[in-house]
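Re: weekly structure request thread

Next one in the queue (367 aa):
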Amino acid sequence: MRRCIYCHKNEDEETFFGREHVLPQLMGKFENNPTLIGLVCDNCNSKIFNVLETKFKEDTEEGIYYQMFNFENSPQIRIRGNNTKADFSPGLEDDFFKEIFPFFKRWENDWKIVFLPQIKIKRYGDNGYIILLIEEVKKLNNNKFSKIKNLLRGVQGKDVAIFTGSKSSDDENSLEEAIAIVRKLGIEYREKKRKLVPVDNDGKEKKFGVSMECRVGNDVGRIISKIVFNYFSFCAQKENNVDILFAPEFTKIKSYILGTANFPIKEIIQAVENEPVIFDEKLRGSRFIGHTIVFYEENGYIISKASFLGKRIYKVVLGAIPNDLRKENFGCGHLFDPINRKIFGLTQNQGKWNSGQEPGFGLFNRI
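Done, posted below.
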């Protein structure tokens, strides 16, 4: 009988139709994407985790950076601004243009910050907003366009700003096109002021600054903890040892993830670090644009370290290590590459480096 690894309810009490992705889909799609099948009930998956994942995407440094890459060419970007304050400095000598949301695009084997034609709509209180990418919105069918229209019901024209490009100062085609989209969305828009930045041909490269301040609260802590426990659970499933996931040693982290227990975040997320996990990153002095998850034993506890898009490293305590797992080669690790949609195994065994061997997922792949 199926049993949820989080709430412990079985299929007589809950349904198990959905799949729980080890990494939320908001963090990318991967070849042979690891998913938990029959281990997470639909109530935990949809009613609890989906809400947390949305908050992670829209209100963390990692989530905002992920939206700046916009790997899936989404027509809209959502920023809540409750826990994360982002400041963009485009170097255009006018604070008006700090309101533009920047994007990363691949250019000559490097990533560059670019401006895309967009409609910015104030939403979610004083600090939140939605960005509509004009070129992507134009591709939407009627059904998807109607969903965005319903989302923006009640928006007033004063809360809308439009940023477009043109071939010359008297070319208003792109601006008029954007205004038509705003009005089609049911928003009464009247232009109040307009500013123009001419193309700078002086050959000097513009320096674009991005700074963020992010508070790691319990909602963020819960989703990070869920991701690392999902990863550990998938490794246990591959080891044909699902029973270990119901060990009492994991009661604390699961109650924290579900929000049924209230204790300081420090008891689960032990530290937020900057020292990279992957040895290659230490050698080259820069981070991969990818997600890293590892777990290992330390002082009698299972410790996981997770990093998303090469940002901060979260050190998470899963629980005391059960006796069944006290083996020399306990541990596992992988790098998830959202750009190429591939997953790479990590190992401390130098004999496997560049050997073409895939360590795979399991509880005892550390060496």
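The two ends are 34 Å apart (CA to CA). The chain has two domains: 19-54+216-352, 61-213.
Next request, please.
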